[in-house]
From TrEMBL:
Gene Ontology molecular function terms on file: zinc ion binding
Protein name per its UniProtKB record: Histone-lysine N-methyltransferase ASHR1
Record carries keyword Chaperone: no
Gene3D superfamilies in the cross-refs: 1.10.220.160, 6.10.140.2220, SET domain
A matching Pfam family: zf-MYND
Organism lineage: Eukaryota, Viridiplantae, Streptophyta, Embryophyta, Tracheophyta
Occurrences of domain MYND-type (ranges): 60-97
Signal peptide: none
Keyword ATP-binding (UniProt): no
Source organism of the structure: Miscanthus lutarioriparius
Length: 351
Protein backbone atom coordinates (compact mmCIF):
# COMPACT_ATOMS: atom_id res chain seq x y z
CA UNK A 1 0.00 0.00 0.00
CA UNK A 2 1.34 3.44 -0.96
CA UNK A 3 2.45 5.77 1.86
CA UNK A 4 0.74 9.11 2.45
CA UNK A 5 3.76 10.89 0.92
CA UNK A 6 3.61 8.76 -2.24
CA UNK A 7 -0.12 9.50 -2.55
CA UNK A 8 0.56 13.22 -2.08
CA UNK A 9 3.30 13.17 -4.73
CA UNK A 10 0.94 11.47 -7.19
CA UNK A 11 -1.74 14.10 -6.55
CA UNK A 12 0.74 16.96 -6.94
CA UNK A 13 2.25 15.42 -10.09
CA UNK A 14 -1.11 15.91 -11.80
CA UNK A 15 -0.88 19.60 -10.92
CA UNK A 16 2.69 20.03 -12.19
CA UNK A 17 4.24 20.07 -8.71
CA UNK A 18 6.37 17.91 -6.43
CA UNK A 19 7.61 17.95 -2.83
CA UNK A 20 11.40 18.08 -2.78
CA UNK A 21 14.25 18.53 -0.33
CA UNK A 22 15.62 22.08 -0.66
CA UNK A 23 19.22 22.64 0.57
CA UNK A 24 19.22 24.77 3.72
CA UNK A 25 15.42 24.85 3.93
CA UNK A 26 14.10 21.31 4.37
CA UNK A 27 11.00 20.46 2.38
CA UNK A 28 9.72 22.69 -0.39
CA UNK A 29 7.47 22.67 -3.42
CA UNK A 30 8.98 22.66 -6.91
CA UNK A 31 7.35 23.04 -10.32
CA UNK A 32 7.53 20.08 -12.69
CA UNK A 33 6.20 22.20 -15.56
CA UNK A 34 6.18 25.89 -16.46
CA UNK A 35 3.69 28.24 -14.80
CA UNK A 36 2.99 31.67 -16.28
CA UNK A 37 2.06 34.88 -14.43
CA UNK A 38 -1.52 34.63 -13.17
CA UNK A 39 -1.64 30.82 -13.35
CA UNK A 40 -3.08 29.01 -10.33
CA UNK A 41 -0.16 26.96 -9.05
CA UNK A 42 -2.15 25.34 -6.25
CA UNK A 43 -5.52 25.74 -4.57
CA UNK A 44 -6.67 24.11 -1.35
CA UNK A 45 -9.47 24.06 1.20
CA UNK A 46 -8.30 24.25 4.83
CA UNK A 47 -7.93 21.07 6.85
CA UNK A 48 -9.56 23.09 9.64
CA UNK A 49 -10.48 26.76 9.93
CA UNK A 50 -12.20 29.19 12.25
CA UNK A 51 -13.35 32.83 12.10
CA UNK A 52 -11.39 35.39 14.11
CA UNK A 53 -14.43 36.77 15.95
CA UNK A 54 -16.10 33.67 17.32
CA UNK A 55 -18.87 34.85 19.62
CA UNK A 56 -20.00 37.98 17.74
CA UNK A 57 -20.98 36.31 14.46
CA UNK A 58 -19.03 38.48 12.01
CA UNK A 59 -18.79 35.74 9.35
CA UNK A 60 -20.09 32.30 8.45
CA UNK A 61 -18.10 29.50 10.08
CA UNK A 62 -17.95 27.56 6.82
CA UNK A 63 -17.63 29.99 3.90
CA UNK A 64 -16.51 33.13 5.81
CA UNK A 65 -19.06 35.38 4.12
CA UNK A 66 -20.78 38.07 6.19
CA UNK A 67 -24.37 39.24 6.00
CA UNK A 68 -27.49 37.56 7.31
CA UNK A 69 -26.06 35.03 9.76
CA UNK A 70 -27.87 32.68 12.11
CA UNK A 71 -26.44 31.37 15.35
CA UNK A 72 -26.51 27.66 16.16
CA UNK A 73 -29.39 27.37 18.60
CA UNK A 74 -27.74 24.60 20.61
CA UNK A 75 -24.14 25.71 21.23
CA UNK A 76 -24.76 29.46 20.78
CA UNK A 77 -21.22 29.81 19.37
CA UNK A 78 -21.25 28.90 15.69
CA UNK A 79 -22.80 31.09 12.96
CA UNK A 80 -23.91 30.10 9.44
CA UNK A 81 -25.12 32.08 6.44
CA UNK A 82 -27.61 29.40 5.46
CA UNK A 83 -28.58 25.74 5.50
CA UNK A 84 -26.09 24.74 2.78
CA UNK A 85 -23.09 25.76 4.87
CA UNK A 86 -24.61 24.25 7.99
CA UNK A 87 -25.05 20.92 6.20
CA UNK A 88 -21.47 21.01 4.89
CA UNK A 89 -20.19 21.46 8.42
CA UNK A 90 -22.66 19.21 10.22
CA UNK A 91 -20.61 16.02 10.64
CA UNK A 92 -17.83 17.99 12.29
CA UNK A 93 -20.00 20.53 14.06
CA UNK A 94 -22.27 17.85 15.52
CA UNK A 95 -19.46 16.77 17.86
CA UNK A 96 -18.17 20.29 18.34
CA UNK A 97 -21.68 21.55 19.12
CA UNK A 98 -22.20 19.04 21.94
CA UNK A 99 -18.82 19.90 23.43
CA UNK A 100 -19.36 23.67 23.32
CA UNK A 101 -22.98 23.48 24.50
CA UNK A 102 -21.73 21.82 27.69
CA UNK A 103 -19.35 24.71 28.46
CA UNK A 104 -20.10 27.39 30.99
CA UNK A 105 -20.33 30.96 29.72
CA UNK A 106 -16.89 31.67 31.24
CA UNK A 107 -15.39 28.73 29.35
CA UNK A 108 -17.05 29.86 26.12
CA UNK A 109 -15.33 33.22 26.51
CA UNK A 110 -12.02 31.34 26.61
CA UNK A 111 -12.62 29.95 23.11
CA UNK A 112 -9.91 31.84 21.26
CA UNK A 113 -9.49 31.16 17.51
CA UNK A 114 -6.41 29.02 18.28
CA UNK A 115 -8.27 26.89 20.84
CA UNK A 116 -11.22 26.50 18.48
CA UNK A 117 -8.90 25.52 15.63
CA UNK A 118 -7.27 22.89 17.85
CA UNK A 119 -10.64 21.48 18.98
CA UNK A 120 -11.77 21.21 15.36
CA UNK A 121 -8.53 19.48 14.37
CA UNK A 122 -8.91 16.91 17.17
CA UNK A 123 -12.51 16.22 16.14
CA UNK A 124 -11.76 16.00 12.42
CA UNK A 125 -8.92 13.57 13.06
CA UNK A 126 -11.28 11.39 15.10
CA UNK A 127 -13.97 11.47 12.41
CA UNK A 128 -11.51 10.66 9.62
CA UNK A 129 -10.08 7.74 11.63
CA UNK A 130 -13.64 6.45 12.07
CA UNK A 131 -14.37 6.96 8.31
CA UNK A 132 -17.23 9.34 9.15
CA UNK A 133 -15.49 12.11 7.20
CA UNK A 134 -13.55 11.04 4.08
CA UNK A 135 -9.82 11.66 3.84
CA UNK A 136 -7.77 12.11 0.68
CA UNK A 137 -4.15 12.43 -0.44
CA UNK A 138 -4.26 16.19 0.26
CA UNK A 139 -6.71 16.14 3.19
CA UNK A 140 -5.51 13.86 5.98
CA UNK A 141 -3.93 14.14 9.40
CA UNK A 142 -0.62 12.64 8.26
CA UNK A 143 0.10 15.92 6.50
CA UNK A 144 -0.49 17.80 9.76
CA UNK A 145 1.74 15.33 11.59
CA UNK A 146 4.55 16.01 9.09
CA UNK A 147 4.55 19.78 9.65
CA UNK A 148 7.51 21.31 11.49
CA UNK A 149 6.75 22.54 15.02
CA UNK A 150 10.17 24.02 15.98
CA UNK A 151 9.16 23.13 19.53
CA UNK A 152 12.81 22.84 20.64
CA UNK A 153 13.30 26.54 19.78
CA UNK A 154 10.23 27.82 21.62
CA UNK A 155 10.94 29.78 24.81
CA UNK A 156 9.85 28.52 28.22
CA UNK A 157 7.00 31.03 28.69
CA UNK A 158 5.45 30.00 25.39
CA UNK A 159 5.81 26.31 26.29
CA UNK A 160 3.90 26.96 29.53
CA UNK A 161 1.18 28.72 27.53
CA UNK A 162 0.94 25.78 25.09
CA UNK A 163 0.60 23.40 28.05
CA UNK A 164 -2.23 25.51 29.53
CA UNK A 165 -3.98 25.65 26.15
CA UNK A 166 -3.62 21.89 25.74
CA UNK A 167 -5.30 21.39 29.12
CA UNK A 168 -8.16 23.66 28.08
CA UNK A 169 -8.64 21.64 24.88
CA UNK A 170 -8.86 18.45 26.95
CA UNK A 171 -11.54 20.07 29.14
CA UNK A 172 -13.59 21.02 26.07
CA UNK A 173 -13.50 17.47 24.61
CA UNK A 174 -13.31 15.29 27.77
CA UNK A 175 -14.57 12.14 26.04
CA UNK A 176 -11.58 12.00 23.69
CA UNK A 177 -8.31 10.70 25.11
CA UNK A 178 -5.65 13.24 24.21
CA UNK A 179 -1.88 13.26 24.34
CA UNK A 180 -1.31 16.72 25.87
CA UNK A 181 2.29 16.82 24.69
CA UNK A 182 1.17 16.16 21.12
CA UNK A 183 -1.46 18.91 21.44
CA UNK A 184 1.24 21.35 22.62
CA UNK A 185 3.42 20.38 19.63
CA UNK A 186 0.47 20.93 17.28
CA UNK A 187 -0.19 24.36 18.79
CA UNK A 188 3.43 25.20 18.01
CA UNK A 189 2.81 23.99 14.44
CA UNK A 190 -0.09 26.44 14.18
CA UNK A 191 2.26 29.31 15.03
CA UNK A 192 4.57 28.36 12.15
CA UNK A 193 2.13 26.98 9.59
CA UNK A 194 -1.40 28.36 9.96
CA UNK A 195 -2.47 31.14 7.59
CA UNK A 196 -4.55 34.24 8.16
CA UNK A 197 -7.57 34.11 5.84
CA UNK A 198 -8.19 37.56 4.34
CA UNK A 199 -10.89 39.17 2.24
CA UNK A 200 -10.06 40.86 -1.13
CA UNK A 201 -9.10 44.03 0.76
CA UNK A 202 -6.68 42.01 2.93
CA UNK A 203 -8.77 42.38 6.08
CA UNK A 204 -8.31 39.33 8.34
CA UNK A 205 -11.36 37.07 8.53
CA UNK A 206 -10.04 33.98 10.27
CA UNK A 207 -7.36 31.34 10.49
CA UNK A 208 -6.91 28.16 8.49
CA UNK A 209 -4.46 25.27 8.37
CA UNK A 210 -3.52 24.55 4.75
CA UNK A 211 -1.07 21.71 5.24
CA UNK A 212 0.00 21.36 1.58
CA UNK A 213 0.40 25.11 1.03
CA UNK A 214 2.44 25.15 4.26
CA UNK A 215 5.13 23.17 2.43
CA UNK A 216 5.84 26.25 0.29
CA UNK A 217 8.89 28.15 1.55
CA UNK A 218 9.32 31.89 2.04
CA UNK A 219 11.22 34.40 -0.07
CA UNK A 220 11.35 38.20 0.14
CA UNK A 221 11.32 38.09 -3.68
CA UNK A 222 8.57 35.48 -4.14
CA UNK A 223 7.54 34.10 -7.50
CA UNK A 224 3.99 33.41 -6.30
CA UNK A 225 1.38 34.97 -4.03
CA UNK A 226 -1.19 33.48 -1.63
CA UNK A 227 -4.73 34.87 -1.93
CA UNK A 228 -8.15 33.77 -0.68
CA UNK A 229 -11.65 33.45 -2.08
CA UNK A 230 -13.76 32.84 1.00
CA UNK A 231 -11.74 30.21 2.83
CA UNK A 232 -10.33 28.65 -0.36
CA UNK A 233 -6.62 29.44 -0.71
CA UNK A 234 -5.03 30.04 -4.11
CA UNK A 235 -1.33 30.25 -4.90
CA UNK A 236 -0.90 32.25 -8.14
CA UNK A 237 2.30 32.78 -10.10
CA UNK A 238 3.64 36.34 -10.05
CA UNK A 239 6.24 35.63 -12.72
CA UNK A 240 7.18 32.70 -14.96
CA UNK A 241 8.10 29.67 -12.82
CA UNK A 242 10.20 27.23 -14.80
CA UNK A 243 10.40 23.46 -14.58
CA UNK A 244 12.39 22.34 -11.50
CA UNK A 245 12.18 25.86 -9.98
CA UNK A 246 11.09 26.20 -6.36
CA UNK A 247 7.72 27.85 -5.74
CA UNK A 248 7.96 30.58 -3.09
CA UNK A 249 5.59 32.98 -1.36
CA UNK A 250 6.21 35.70 1.21
CA UNK A 251 5.16 35.03 4.80
CA UNK A 252 5.47 38.73 5.72
CA UNK A 253 5.08 42.27 4.41
CA UNK A 254 7.93 42.66 1.91
CA UNK A 255 7.91 46.48 1.72
CA UNK A 256 10.33 46.82 4.63
CA UNK A 257 14.07 46.96 5.19
CA UNK A 258 16.04 43.75 5.74
CA UNK A 259 16.30 44.22 9.51
CA UNK A 260 12.51 44.60 9.86
CA UNK A 261 11.82 41.62 7.60
CA UNK A 262 14.22 39.40 9.53
CA UNK A 263 12.60 40.47 12.79
CA UNK A 264 9.14 39.62 11.41
CA UNK A 265 10.42 36.19 10.35
CA UNK A 266 11.64 35.26 13.84
CA UNK A 267 8.32 33.55 14.62
CA UNK A 268 9.14 31.05 11.85
CA UNK A 269 12.59 30.25 13.32
CA UNK A 270 14.75 30.86 10.26
CA UNK A 271 16.84 33.64 8.73
CA UNK A 272 16.02 34.42 5.12
CA UNK A 273 18.94 34.18 2.68
CA UNK A 274 17.05 35.13 -0.47
CA UNK A 275 18.87 37.36 -3.03
CA UNK A 276 17.22 40.47 -1.61
CA UNK A 277 18.37 39.75 1.94
CA UNK A 278 21.91 38.91 0.78
CA UNK A 279 22.07 42.08 -1.32
CA UNK A 280 21.13 44.14 1.72
CA UNK A 281 22.13 47.71 2.36
CA UNK A 282 21.64 49.64 -0.88
CA UNK A 283 17.96 48.73 -1.21
CA UNK A 284 17.48 49.23 2.55
CA UNK A 285 18.88 52.73 2.22
CA UNK A 286 16.39 53.59 -0.51
CA UNK A 287 13.50 52.18 1.53
CA UNK A 288 14.57 53.97 4.71
CA UNK A 289 14.89 57.19 2.74
CA UNK A 290 17.14 59.40 4.93
CA UNK A 291 19.68 61.31 2.88
CA UNK A 292 23.24 61.69 4.15
CA UNK A 293 23.86 65.10 5.80
CA UNK A 294 27.14 65.37 3.93
CA UNK A 295 26.11 67.46 0.91
CA UNK A 296 28.96 66.03 -1.15
CA UNK A 297 27.70 62.45 -0.61
CA UNK A 298 24.75 60.79 -2.35
CA UNK A 299 24.49 57.97 0.20
CA UNK A 300 21.64 57.09 2.57
CA UNK A 301 21.49 56.68 6.32
CA UNK A 302 20.87 53.25 7.84
CA UNK A 303 20.26 52.36 11.52
CA UNK A 304 23.41 51.07 13.21
CA UNK A 305 22.95 47.58 14.64
CA UNK A 306 22.70 47.80 18.43
CA UNK A 307 22.93 51.62 18.41
CA UNK A 308 20.51 54.52 18.16
CA UNK A 309 22.55 56.35 15.51
CA UNK A 310 22.01 56.26 11.75
CA UNK A 311 25.14 55.94 9.64
CA UNK A 312 25.66 56.61 5.93
CA UNK A 313 26.37 53.41 4.04
CA UNK A 314 28.85 55.28 1.80
CA UNK A 315 30.82 57.85 3.80
CA UNK A 316 30.05 56.63 7.37
CA UNK A 317 28.85 60.06 8.60
CA UNK A 318 26.32 59.60 11.43
CA UNK A 319 23.15 61.31 12.64
CA UNK A 320 21.90 60.76 16.16
CA UNK A 321 18.37 59.70 17.10
CA UNK A 322 17.18 63.25 17.82
CA UNK A 323 18.19 64.43 14.34
CA UNK A 324 16.31 61.53 12.77
CA UNK A 325 13.19 62.31 14.85
CA UNK A 326 13.33 65.93 13.65
CA UNK A 327 13.67 64.79 10.03
CA UNK A 328 10.70 62.43 10.42
CA UNK A 329 8.58 65.24 11.88
CA UNK A 330 9.46 67.56 8.98
CA UNK A 331 8.64 64.82 6.45
CA UNK A 332 5.25 64.20 8.10
CA UNK A 333 4.45 67.93 8.04
CA UNK A 334 5.31 68.14 4.33
CA UNK A 335 3.24 65.00 3.67
CA UNK A 336 0.22 66.44 5.52
CA UNK A 337 0.58 69.70 3.62
CA UNK A 338 0.77 67.87 0.29
CA UNK A 339 -2.31 65.74 1.08
CA UNK A 340 -4.33 68.90 1.78
CA UNK A 341 -3.89 70.10 -1.83
CA UNK A 342 -6.84 69.51 -4.20
CA UNK A 343 -6.46 66.34 -6.26
CA UNK A 344 -8.61 67.02 -9.32
CA UNK A 345 -6.05 65.56 -11.66
CA UNK A 346 -4.93 68.97 -12.93
CA UNK A 347 -1.42 70.31 -12.42
CA UNK A 348 -1.17 73.27 -10.07
CA UNK A 349 1.28 75.95 -11.20
CA UNK A 350 2.55 78.58 -8.77
CA UNK A 351 4.21 81.81 -9.81
Amino acid sequence: MASWLELLQRELAGRGLAVASIPGKGRGLIATRTFFPGDVVLNQEPYVSTPNKILVGSSCDHCFTSGKLRKCSMCQVTWYCGSDCQKEEWKLHQLECRAMAALTEDRKRMLTPTIRLMVRLVLKRKLQNEKVIPSSSIDNYNLVDALESHISKVDENQLVLYAQMANLVSLIVPLIELDLQEIAHTLSKFACNAHTICDPELRPLGTGLYHVISIINHSCVPNAVLIFDGRTAYVRALQPIGKDEEVSISYIETAAVTKKRHNDLKQYFFTCTCPRCVKGSEEDALLEGFRCKNQACDGFLLPDSGKKDYTCQKCSVSRDEEEIKKMRSEILQLSDKASSFPSSGSILVYD
